[in-house]
Write a sequence for this structure.
């Protein structure tokens, strides 16, 4: 083996070791004890009709996802092959042409995905999960493309700018830049959501209590109005430092019992207690470095990312890498969600409410309590409902056994 | 081969205006308003007869054709009078060749039955353009409170209306209508005449929105220091970028907004510099020139006046529709001091043209998606509006103290023609 090859191999080993160490540090901060989750039978918690409805709903979505992903890949393959032709529609110089090609690639994907979006909307409307109309959705999607394009242009300006300066080493500067943007977005995003204060005095009192228990001070718990768009329940913890907050959809506040909502709030505060937003960005950084490196390597044959003609290929590579990384990202996400669930159980000491909440999710979201392996690996970024019920049961058992 | 539009506007106005008749113009026109209202009712009935007869015989009957021509000619005279495009009081019967702003019509000719059958629907785009140009005279249907339909004809509208209002003040002060406003008003009056001629089956030729063709025989004004340059013949469009035009433009719009914040600061500094030294600092002038040029590039892209995706730097010569801007030169201190107030009339004209630009872009979007090319007339209407906007920007951002020229003919040395017959 030549000296150069040895050096490269050594560099790869060192970088891989650093990556593994960082991943281990992010992963091993778990607060969930090594539990042996008991087996729980879904039929003991849900009627056959509910299980059938959830299964039928999920199966259609699964099929739709598979086909739409295949179509997306096919479009991007074609675009990688022929997309460079659109360069003649640009008078914008190298960077501007790159942006145009990037946007057109996204536009084509949008157009190809449109029938699937409509089909998904039809499916959700059929199951009374959304109130959105077809025209407003399509028009809204079309205009939302503009926002996507803006971010894409920013990303391409960064990549092409660094690629012009650093050639194929652009990823060394590009990945940190994207991490910086992710941090900025995490900080700013709470301010972009229109919300109002939590009205219920009971929930406000519960929140104050939970904040003290979970050592999360001065985090506003606010409500976002979504009931005119969807009936799905949801909540999220967002923000960094002073922008941290818990956002509850009004569908969850009005459609669930106060005890169940309290568990939700405890869960979201758990995310903040354990710095999950920071960890999300950390994980993003761990994927961003190898991802940008691979894009840089794979687009070399098209002249590298400084050349607009490489952009169509880079879109394909990006989407493929995302697809490959998706199961890993889901593993990480499920891990963080399990931590938040455990925090909620510890803070509320109410496994019965947690179990009721998770049970309630199934008829309201038509999520499968025990999805197929494919669904679990590719699409589930939360523990399954049965896993969550099992955790609540395990907590109840351990709490009963502790003095 | 280009064929001249059979409905031709003839402008023999000398720009002079009687202050007395200008002051009372609307009141003086009251008898005409009553007369046009009555005439319109009869014309609606006659138009239905004409439509049926043309469908049956394939050609409008000579008597009805003559009646329609008289109506549209009278409407044109009245619009020109109310819009201050002409000075003398018009007659009541639409006499040919008796008024300084007149219109000539072709004789009754065979017309395809399909186009005749769908005429009212086919005229919708022209009605949109006409309402944007606002030469007046557009029949307006509205529903009264008790549900009774009302209709009528008369003056008023976007570009024509703004030109009339501004022209009223100018004429009262100077005893003369500014040529720019007169030409713009004449353009809107002419387009309205062509639209009505099409709607009322006088001709089956679609109205031509090209302002230079409309005013082909009108003398050109002197060239402005801010000039629009580009390849007039290039009408090709990529369907893909046309379809996604608005989302594609959003990054540019974001960038333009950010840039405009800095441009405002630089413009204020330039304002002080001109007040003290009498000329803009070269570096500021360069910066603002780029900004104004970039604004034009983005507008041309958004409003489908040009095809390619523009660059982000406003570099001269980088875009097919470009601006020639003056070098930094001396500017009057008084004009500079009051610049923001002096720009108000131009802002009004620009906002009126902006509506026309929007309508032109809206219609061009559909045509370009189908044909992969922009319609010649609408593209030139857009270019007119964009040129005026750029001149206003250059004036507002202190690149020049030359006032924007409202004439659609400004910048055109001779009548530009497409290589083929092109409607709208």
């Amino acid at each position: 083996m030549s000296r150069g090859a040895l050096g490269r191999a050594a560099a790869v080993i060192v970088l891989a070791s650093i990556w593994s160490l960082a991943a281990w540090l992010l992963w091993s901060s778990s607060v969930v004890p090594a539990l042996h989750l008991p087996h729980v039978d879904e039929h003991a918690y849900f009627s056959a009709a509910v299980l059938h409805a959830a299964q039928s709903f999920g199966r259609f979505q699964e099929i739709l996802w598979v086909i739409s992903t295949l179509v997306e890949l096919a479009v991007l393959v074609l675009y990688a092959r022929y997309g460079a032709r659109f360069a003649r529609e640009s008078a914008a110089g190298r960077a501007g042409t790159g942006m145009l090609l990037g946007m057109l690639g996204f536009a084509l994907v949008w157009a190809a995905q449109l029938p699937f979006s409509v089909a998904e909307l039809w499916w959700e409307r059929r199951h009374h999960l959304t109130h959105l109309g077809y025209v407003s959705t399509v028009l809204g999607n079309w205009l939302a493309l503009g926002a996507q394009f803006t971010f894409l242009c920013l990303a391409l300006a960064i990549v092409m700018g660094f690629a012009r300066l650093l050639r194929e080493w652009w990823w060394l500067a590009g990945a940190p830049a994207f991490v910086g943007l992710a941090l900025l977005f995490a900080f700013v995003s709470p301010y972009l959501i229109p919300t109002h204060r939590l009205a219920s005095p009971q929930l406000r009192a519960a929140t104050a209590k939970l904040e003290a228990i979970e050592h999360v001070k001065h985090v506003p718990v606010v409500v976002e109005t979504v009931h005119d768009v969807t009936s799905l329940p949801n909540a999220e913890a967002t923000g960094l430092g002073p922008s941290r907050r818990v956002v509850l959809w009004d569908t969850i506040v009005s459609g669930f019992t106060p005890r169940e909502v309290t568990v939700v709030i405890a869960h979201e505060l758990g995310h903040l207690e354990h710095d999950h937003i920071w960890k999300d960005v950390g994980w993003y950084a761990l994927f961003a470095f190898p991802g940008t490196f691979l894009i840089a390597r794979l687009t070399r044959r098209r002249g590298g990312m400084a050349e607009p003609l490489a952009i169509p290929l880079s879109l394909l590579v990006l989407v493929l890498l995302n697809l490959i990384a998706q199961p890993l990202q889901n593993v990480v996400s499920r891990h963080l969600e399990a931590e938040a669930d455990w925090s909620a159980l510890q803070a509320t000491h109410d496994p019965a409410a947690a179990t009721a909440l998770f049970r309630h999710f199934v008829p309201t979201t038509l999520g499968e309590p025990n999805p197929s392996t494919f669904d679990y690996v590719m699409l589930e970024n939360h523990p399954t409902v049965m896993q969550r019920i099992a955790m609540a049961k395990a907590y109840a058992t351990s709490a009963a056994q502790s003095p | 081969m280009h064929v001249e539009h059979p409905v031709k506007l003839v402008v023999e106005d000398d720009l002079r205006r009687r202050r007395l008749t200008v002051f009372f113009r609307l009141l003086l026109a009251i008898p005409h308003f009553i007369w046009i209202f009555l005439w319109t009712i009869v014309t609606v009935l006659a138009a239905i007869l004409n439509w049926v007869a043309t469908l049956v015989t394939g050609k409008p009957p000579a008597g009805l054709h003559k009646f329609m021509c008289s109506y549209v000619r009278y409407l044109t005279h009245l619009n020109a009078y109310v819009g201050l495009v002409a000075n003398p009081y018009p007659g009541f019967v639409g006499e040919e060749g008796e008024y300084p702003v007149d219109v000539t019509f072709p004789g009754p000719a065979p017309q395809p039955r399909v186009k005749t059958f769908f005429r009212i629907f086919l005229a919708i785009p022209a009605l949109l353009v006409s309402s944007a140009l606002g030469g007046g005279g557009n029949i307006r249907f509205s529903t009264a409170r008790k549900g009774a339909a009302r209709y009528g004809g008369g003056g008023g509208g976007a570009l024509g209306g703004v030109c009339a209002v501004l022209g009223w003040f100018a004429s009262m002060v100077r005893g003369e209508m500014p040529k720019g406003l007169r030409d713009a008003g004449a353009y809107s009056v002419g387009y309205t005449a062509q639209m009505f001629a099409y709607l009322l089956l006088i001709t089956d030729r679609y109205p031509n929105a090209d302002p230079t063709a409309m005013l082909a025989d009108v003398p050109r004004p002197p060239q402005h220091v801010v000039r629009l340059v580009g390849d007039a013949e290039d009408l090709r469009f990529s369907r893909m970028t046309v379809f996604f035009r608005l989302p594609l433009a959003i990054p540019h719009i974001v960038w333009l907004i950010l840039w405009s914040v800095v441009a405002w600061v630089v413009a204020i500094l330039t304002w002080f510099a001109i007040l003290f030294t009498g000329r803009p600092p070269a570096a500021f002038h360069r910066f603002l020139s780029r900004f104004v040029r970039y604004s034009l590039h983005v507008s041309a892209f958004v409003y489908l006046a040009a095809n390619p995706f523009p660059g982000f730097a406003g570099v001269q010569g980088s875009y097919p529709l470009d601006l020639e801007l003056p070098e930094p030169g001396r500017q009057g201190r008084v004009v500079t001091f009051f610049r923001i107030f002096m720009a108000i009339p131009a802002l009004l004209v620009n906002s009126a043209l902006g509506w026309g630009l929007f309508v032109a872009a809206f219609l061009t979007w559909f045509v370009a998606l189908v044909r992969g090319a922009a319609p010649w007339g609408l593209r030139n209407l857009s270019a007119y509006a964009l040129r005026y906007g750029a001149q206003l920007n250059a004036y507002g951002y202190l690149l020049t103290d030359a006032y924007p020229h409202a004439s659609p003919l400004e910048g055109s040395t001779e009548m530009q023609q497409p290589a083929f017959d092109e409607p709208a």
About this structure: Strands of chain B lie at 8-11, 101-104, 142-143, 149-150, 227-230, 309-310, 321-324.
